Amino acid sequence: MTPRKNERRRHKRYTVDGVYGNVLYPSDLEILNMSIDGAAIETSRRLDINREYTFKIKHRGSVVNFRGRVIWSLLTNKELKDQNKIVPIYRAGIRFTDTLNEKGAQLMNFIEENKIKTLERRVVGVRFKIDAPQNIKVDYPYKYEVKKMSISGMLVETGYPLKINARYHIEIFFENNVVELIGRVVYCAEVKAGDEKFNIGIEFVEMPDDKRALIKKFLTTSS
After folding, report:
1. pTM summary value
2. CATH dotted code for 14-23+140-222
3. Domain spanning 26-138 has what CATH number?
4. Nearest 5 degrees, angle CA 72-CA 77-CA 83?
5. N or C: which terminus of the chain has fewer CB atoms within 10 Å of its end residue's CB?
6. What is the CA radius of gyration of the chain?
7. Would the CATH topology of 14-23+140-222 be identical to that of 26-138?
8. Which of 115, 136, 116, 118 is nearest to 127 (CA)?
9. Is there a contact between 154 and 205 (Cβ–Cβ < 8 Å)?
10. How far apart are CA 147 and CA 168, in angstroms?
11. Partners of 52 in the beta sheet?
12. What 3-state class would DSSP assign to 8?
């Protein structure tokens, strides 16, 4: 790893190898049923078992983030009657992991205001059919490779474009560490016409001090 010379930047930028991460992009899902402790959902892409995801629920003009762990997942099919075709979909069971606080009350209010009927009574709670598909999304991970990095941002290569000035939840993996932060897209350009690869410049805008210290240590000790 080497710093670029004569680069007029706020922080020194380093060329890195073997560092990857995910941009967590909000994707649509369908709620099959939901309770205060979890949900059964359908998505167009597979969610990994035992992985935690962030679910975003729009309620009363604000967005509430919930963490949930996938406890089961299976591939099935769904008939799109309006298009006269059958498409593959994934069903997954989610156990919420951070609703034992004020978020629990917000989730319960969302369920009460959007439930259609009671589906099943369980020891740990009651499952309801929900009629608010447009109000809940999941942050799906899209992989990238880091090309250059500083303690204030990075240049990555992806197989998808990102919108300039948009902010995303981002994960960076290196040396058995996971850094989670909010990044703002400041640059997006196709690497080569028709290649379907893009160089994305990301500015770190929200990151805990301990995570920033991890990145600084990695850059300075690996150079």
Report:
1. 0.72
2. 2.40.10.220
3. 2.40.10
4. 140
5. C
6. 20
7. yes
8. 118
9. no
10. 19
11. 69
12. coil
